[in-house]
Amino acid sequence: MHVCYSRLENNLDLSDGARSLVKRGPLVFTRVNKGKVTGSKKIQCFLFTDLFMYAKKIKGKKDYLVYKQLHRSLIGVADVDPHVVGKKKGHFFEITLFGETPTRLLVDAKTKKTKAEWMDILVSKHTTGTAYEEWDCPRAVVTQSYNPQQRDEVALREGDTVDVLIRNKNGRAKGRVLRNTEFGMLVPVAEGWFPVRIMKEIQSAHSQAKVFKRQFQRDANTFTRTHK
Question: If we measure between CA atoms, which residue out of 161, 165, 168 comes closest to residue 133?
């Protein structure tokens, strides 16, 4: 697949070895005004392990013109009241792109099954606040070195970066330890349990998403739908 990023100021490399394609397929982005569909555009959507992207196939070519790339944690989905689209038949739902200027996309999945598949895969399965998806988890820095006390624990060095996958009520967390390579890239080196008291949460895609989602709730009436 060849992609063109001319519409983007910055783009993420799809060839990242840690990134793999989870789902792809066409959705019809729809514009509605006063209960009437005023425009629509067939868009190819791509969901990677940590990234959501949508693009338009360039006519007469195998290339795709990328409209948007967004971290997967910045995506929200919701069903749509049938009155929103009036008499228009379809299988509509809404995708919200969280950010400084959030966008709500009204999309038609064409079939009930396709709609259910996209709505299911775009949301986190963990809603309790104690377990997290690998693509939507808190990131922390280790504040003091730790030697394992139990077989399921992991050795940590002060300054290590950890992605927290589980946090329980007993003051323990399970995480993936990340360390810098000689090229300055964070890579996983170990996984296991450790005390919560020796970590401090730092800014990450997860923490940024929480801020944007809270803002979305406060300013829900300021957003507009678009299919661009």
Answer: 165
For residues 185 and 161, the answer to whether their CB atoms sit within 8 Å is: no
Per-residue pLDDT of the chain (228 residues; tens, 9 = 90+): 688 888 888 888 787 667 899 999 999 999 887 777 788 899 999 999 999 999 998 888 888 999 999 999 999 999 988 777 777 788 999 999 999 889 989 999 989 999 999 999 998 776 556 889 889 999 999 999 999 999 999 999 999 999 999 999 889 999 999 998 887 778 889 999 999 999 999 999 999 999 998 888 887 655 444 444
**Phi, psi (deg, nearest 5) at residue 131:** -130, 145
Count of Cβ atoms closer than 10 Å to residue 100 Cβ: 6
C-alpha dist (Å) from residue 179 to 151, 158, 182, 212 = 22, 11, 10, 28
